[in-house]
Amino acid sequence: LPVATISKSAGIGGKAVLVDGVVAFKYVNTDMESSSIQTADKATNMRKDRAKVLSKILDPHAFTFPPPRGSTIVISVQEMEIVSMPQQQASLQRFVQCMATYYNVFVMVHMDLNQDDGKAKSTWKRDALGSPFPHLPTHRLIPTSTTAGRVALVRQLQTVEHVIDFDPQVQSELTRFGYKVYTYDPNVGLGDQMFPAES
Asked: 94-146 pLDDT, tens per residue?
């Protein structure tokens, strides 16, 4: 994969803020929020959550290190995971929060196509319900409707440390190009798989 390059054409206070066309992690609000977590207990719980998640994502059969702070991670979820029951929604939010306060996270929301006109049908409206992931900047929440679209977005981002998706076809397409892809069971849901009810 190409090495991250810093753009000199954009900046805040004269500093470069773009890495491969993406706003660098330290300039994203989630990073600023993580540095001002109110209690030591909350910070400790966030680290424990992240360690639990990474232990499931990383290959247990290979000697791998966790991605460095600020790495780009792309997460795909189905729309029904957002508009599902409150318990499932809470576990998904918990997962995204623990990742987005340490990594550069993009969430792709897969919406099914309407069989009649081929357009995405959605029961979730961000403007009406607000962002389902309050710890994620809204421009990092991307609607998709095809496998090819999700694969193309990951490849356009260039430097991606990990991809988390529910479709084995996405894994097959991306691993050919050297991407590390973790797939989860869409019938269980990403949040519930990372944080089962007993945890």
From this structure: 898 888 888 889 999 998 765 555 555 555 555 444 567 777 777 788 888 89
Q: Could you tell me which of 146, 132, 138 has the C-alpha nearest to residue 90?
A: 132
Q: In Å, how far from its chain's centre is CA 161? A: 11
| Distance (Å, whole) CA 28 – CA 103 | 10
Q: What's the full length of the chain, in residues?
A: 199
- The CA angle 165-131-122, to the nearest 5 degrees, is 65
Secondary structure of residue 121 in the 3-state scheme: coil
Contact 186, 78 (CB under 8 A): yes
Residue 81 to residue 190: CA distance in whole angstroms: 8
- Which residue blocks in the chain are alpha helix, DSSP H? 29-34, 40-57, 79-82, 86-100, 126-129, 147-157, 168-175, 190-194
8-state DSSP, 142:
E
